[in-house]
Amino acid sequence: MKRFSFSSFMLVVGLLFIYLPMLILVIYSFNESKLVTVWGGWSIKWYVGLLDNTQLMGSVARSLEIACYTAVAAVALGTLAAFVLTRISQFKGRTLFGGLVTAPLVMPEVITGLSLLLLFVAMAQMIGWPQERGIVTIWIAHTTFCAAYVAVVVSARLRELDLSIEEAAMDLGARPWKVFFLITIPMIAPSLAAGGMMSFALSLDDLVLASFVSGPGSTTLPMEVFSAVRLGVKPEINAVASLILLAVSLVTFLVWYFSRRAEERRKKAIQQAIEEAAADGWKQPDVRRAPAPV
Amino acid sequence: MNMKKFKRRLHRIIPSGKQVVIGIPFLWLFMFFMLPFFIVLKISFAEADVAIPPYTEIYTYIEQKLEVVLNLANYSLLAGDELYIAAYLGSLKMAFFSTALCLLIGYPMAYAIASARKEMQTVLVLLIMMPTWTAILIRVYAWMGILSNNGLLNGFLMSMGLINEPLQILNTNIAVYIGVVYSYLPFMILPLYANLVKHDQSLLEAASDLGSSTFNSFWKITVPLSKNGIIAGCMLVFIPVVGEFVIPELLGGPETLMIGKVLWQEFFNNRDWPVASALAVVMLAILIVPIILFNRSQAKEMEGKV
Predict the structure, then answer these.
(1) Which architecture characterizes domain B85-303 according to CATH?
(2) What is the pTM of this model?
């Protein structure tokens, strides 16, 4: 069919458009020449030079620390939000709640950043906290917008889940929190991992929010890179950027690998359960589709 | 007081499990997402001041008289100064055309992914998703090296003999368009794909059995069915681009007037917090309709109603 070839062509062109600039960036980070546009042979001197840059290394450590805290908090908060949205169909303010969960996905960062900073300033005046802005305020800002991403990922998974498993556990007398931790959490674990890694990457990347809510002495890696990039293209920045790209690709690959493995294991377990059921002479064509007991 | 009574009282004070589950995310989002907007609104009515923090209080309470002074000067400044109006219009224009471009490029790509083999789909989605996790900063930076006067693109075109002197692309609006489409394309493709992959192929088969041409059935069946995906994708591009700061700052030039950049300059360079707040309030007022549209389509998606 003609349309098929056209769309496949667009896909290939689009992927080239997305990846070629990044590939060029990585190649040029190994450029021997100080002039970024002239190729002077292969070299890793820019990478070695990075290690001596203590200011940069400090900001890397700070960014990683914030990203870790953000991943943990965003997964907890986002999962709760997703659970509320998919499982509790009616409560006061549900529409508002839904809006609050999804709006951070699209809200321009300059608005979120400015408003959070003004909140922190007002809080410092009123209750004396936070005295100085730094890691904690950046963590709060990142958690708020990463939780929205986690909520989207986790709610997609929660919707697919077979409710009858949770219902069965409840019928057998398990308390709701026990059902949640022993049944629901293990079943949505891959999406929790995906959401966590996504939050980690998003937090590591954020420039605008961090610029607004950070204080003196708490520059993160993107802020450091930004102030250097403003002055033009430099080989050291090529090296930093390549390292960030490498880290993110690694995280993405891990997400893909683990979610695929979890999926395969789940399929195998279902297959096994069906076979065992059949061997017992207990006729049930598909365990997953069994009607919930009324 | 016996134990039973005490327990019952305790139950009345301590919120139930359900209330806690709803309450934690609700309170967090209210505190750190919604409440801040009201503070922005408040400060947009204040006056800039040489103090810490650099604005005046809008209410005073002296001798049992509460006085609230709403200073409208910031808003009349925005309405009267052509620079700000041009910046708003520039942002909206940039957002509109880049959304259209993303849709034109992204729709065929999402369609191709949705019609690929199942194992292939996961890999392709991952390939599209990966850049969204990478800093916009780095992806934009990569283009700076390509588009500059002595950059790769100009070098390539000159060596091919197509042009004699380098084209000025970096620091123009063209560079901003390239950067925006490049950075936001995945956000268009992902919701479109999520929608297209759920379509029932038998509808298209039925249409073709009844003699409909491929294009006709695409236009009359696939496109209307993917309405929610199109809305979500367009909003995911349009709304953030209106407030975009990094791309116009790094790729744009003096002709690039965008509101995110202006807000940043008012805040960081001029330290005029009230004007920056007023700019944010007006931007939010412009974006409130698209945001509600997005939230609706997202709520439908989350509840599983398509």
Answers:
(1) Orthogonal Bundle (1.10)
(2) 0.86
